[in-house]
Amino acid sequence: MEEVEVVVAHHERATLRVGDVFLKIDADQTRTDVEVEAMAMAPIPTPEVLWRKPPVLALAALPGTALGRLGEPSTASPAAWAAAGAAARMLHDAPLPPWPGRSLDELASHLDGECEWLVTNGVLPTDLVTRNRRVAEAALRPWAPVFTHGDLQVTHVFVDTDEITGVIDWSEASQGDALFDLATLTLGHEEHLSDVVAGYGTDVDLDVIRAWWSLRSLLAVRWLVEHGFDPSSPGCEVDVLRSRL
């Protein structure tokens, strides 16, 4: 009998693995709607949808292994990281999904609120928050919207040797900033940024990518804490914020 592995679980959603099948259970079916439609539209490999019976979505496991994990050195080759950059470029060149992402005003308001919470509750030192808030400003500029994955972290990109076998977890896909995806992919793995940019194949503003590292980390801390994760683990979000000083 196959064992049931809990991949991730919190009060919003849970993912279980049984053999070669992943079962995603989400309280918000809108996220699942987005995930299914985005995977159907994406021009890069995605998991096969086996069946859907709300609130459960069954997906086939991808071959290969994750590109890396936040807080751990990646064992993937530079060519694999470049392939991830090339996959991101292919996605960003695809037709836009029909649903919009967050606006600049929404992002700025969210950032202000999270920074205030971090300082008021003594979660992070004021100077750390202030410095990263200043760095994050560079990301808050107009951009030409592209088809973004929205959560392109290293654990969501699967590789076999030097080839991308698929990308998972599309529930945050939307129209958005291409550099946000590149920043999410390289968060905590700055040493692989040049490989990703080489694979992406066009000039990018590295200062904006670094700004997104600060912005994403500032926005993530409260959510991680409230959902039972530790953003202060070595190499994770708090370390990313400290590296900006």
Defining key terms:
245 residues; alpha+beta; Aminoglycoside 3'-phosphotransferase, Chain: A, domain 2; 5-stranded antiparallel sheet; 3-stranded antiparallel sheet; globular; AGP_Transferase; Aminoglycoside_PTrfase; Kinase-like_dom_sf
Give an overview of the whole structure.
The protein is an alpha+beta fold and 245 residues long. The chain has a single domain, classed as Alpha-Beta Complex (Aminoglycoside 3'-phosphotransferase, Chain: A, domain 2). Helices cover 41% and strands 18% of the residues. The protein is built from eight helices and ten strands. The strands form three sheets. The protein has a five-stranded antiparallel β-sheet. A three-stranded antiparallel β-sheet has the order 6-8-9, with helices on one face. Strands 7-10 form a two-stranded antiparallel ribbon. Helix 2 runs antiparallel to helix 5, helix 2 crosses helix 6 (193-200) and helix 3 (104-120) packs antiparallel against helix 4 (126-136). The model has no long low-confidence stretch (mean pLDDT 95).
